[in-house]
């Protein structure tokens, strides 16, 4: 099995809508038709290695990372590139929607009453505003990114880590000078049973999966620490660390296998995540949630 990465030069290659991201045969057809389209074949090593391979050979001003099984609206990159060129942006982002394959239901990712289109902001200002909605997703497929900034930071995706978009976008935004967001829905994210991030897990598989979130919380705290004194570190950034860690607590409560639940709880304590949550909790609401969960964790641990 091979992973295929294709770099498209926005404005010169048009993908006929509304179709899914082209399969490998279509990739080669585009490469044959357009000299500036390159197809990279490599053994399947996960999305992070595929993205890193694409970044290593990418050229041009901006890059983007659409997921293979999603749908792109026809004006997606035209709209984002126009924004980026008009305002000399490091990052241009848009809104999207979830499409639930089973029920055929559609739901906007970031409700318009939570976040509307912005002017030009610094990356940290934008991330603060986005996180404050409590609906923001750290996903790379909702934007385009200045390639030179990524290369300057030597920013790569961590192989094998689920939800690696979270630390990647956080560090990029901490360094972005000019960011702008449009509330226009231009990307459709498909949710189905085969999706890795939406797959139901129990037992040992769930234990292993929750370790990814523990690692995410650790990476986020490390990023905050490294940028202390360099940029404004708003309360929302620390709150995000505890938020990601609390998701593991919820997973422990829902886990039907008692042995697996004990393993998840053990991982929380052995990784120091209980202390990490305390260091980063912000606001009365989150502190209240955290205190409840700490009481539960200590009670479960003693059983």
Helix-strand layout with pairing:
Layout: E1 2-7, H1 24-33, E2 38-43, H2 47-57, E3 62-63, E4 71-72, H3 76-87, E5 91-100, E6 105-108, H4 123-132, E7 143-146, H5 147-153, H6 165-175, E8 179-191, H7 204-226, H8 235-254, H9 258-270, H10 273-280, H11 284-302
Parallel strand pairs: 5-8
Antiparallel strand pairs: 1-2, 3-7, 4-8, 5-6, 5-7
Helix pairs in contact: 4-6, 4-8, 6-7, 7-8, 7-9, 8-9, 8-10, 8-11
In short:
This protein has about 300 residues and is α+β, with helices and mostly antiparallel strands.
Keywords for this structure?
8 strands; alpha+beta; two-stranded antiparallel sheet; 303 residues; six-stranded mixed β-sheet; disordered N terminus; single chain
Determine the fraction of residues in helical runs and give it as a percent range. Answer: 40-55%
Distance between the termini: 46 Å
What fraction strand?
15-25%
Look at the structure and give the mean pLDDT. Answer: 88
Low-confidence stretches: 1-23
* Major sheet attributes: 6 strands, mixed
Instruction: Kindly state the number of beta strands.
Output: 8
Total DSSP helices: 11
Coarse shape: globular
Task: Please trace the helix and strand order, writing H or E for each element.
Answer: EHEHEEHEEHEHHEHHHHH
Rg measurement, Å: 20 Å
**Structural class label:** alpha+beta
């Amino acid at each position: 099995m091979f992973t295929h990465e294709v770099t498209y030069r926005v404005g010169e290659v048009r993908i006929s809508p509304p179709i899914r991201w082209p399969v490998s045969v279509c990739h080669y057809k585009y490469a044959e038709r357009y000299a500036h389209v390159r197809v990279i074949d490599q053994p399947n090593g996960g999305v992070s290695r595929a993205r890193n391979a694409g970044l290593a050979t990418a050229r041009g001003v901006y890059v983007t990372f659409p997921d293979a099984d999603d749908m792109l609206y026809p004006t997606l990159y035209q709209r984002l590139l126009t924004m980026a060129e008009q305002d000399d942006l490091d990052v241009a982002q848009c809104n999207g929607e979830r499409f639930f394959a089973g029920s055929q239901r559609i739901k906007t990712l970031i409700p318009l009453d939570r976040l509307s289109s912005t002017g030009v902001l610094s990356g940290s200002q934008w991330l603060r505003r986005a996180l404050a909605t409590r609906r923001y997703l750290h996903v790379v497929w909702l934007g385009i990114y200045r390639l030179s900034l990524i290369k300057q930071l030597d920013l790569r995706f961590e192989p094998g880590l689920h939800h690696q978009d979270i630390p990647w976008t956080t560090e990029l935004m901490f360094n972005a000078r000019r960011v702008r967001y449009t509330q226009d829905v231009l990307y459709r994210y498909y949710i189905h049973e085969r999706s890795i991030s939406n797959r139901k897990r129990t037992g040992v598989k769930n234990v292993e999966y929750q370790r990814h979130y523990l690692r995410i919380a650790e990476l986020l705290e490390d990023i905050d620490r490294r940028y202390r004194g360099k940029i404004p570190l708003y309360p929302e950034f620390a709150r995000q660390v505890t938020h990601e860690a609390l998701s593991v607590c919820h997973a422990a409560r829902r886990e039907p296998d008692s042995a697996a639940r004990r393993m998840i709880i053990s991982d929380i304590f052995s990784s120091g995540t209980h202390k990490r949550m305390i260091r980063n909790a912000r606001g009365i609401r989150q502190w209240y949630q955290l205190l409840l969960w700490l009481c539960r964790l200590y009670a479960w641990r003693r059983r």
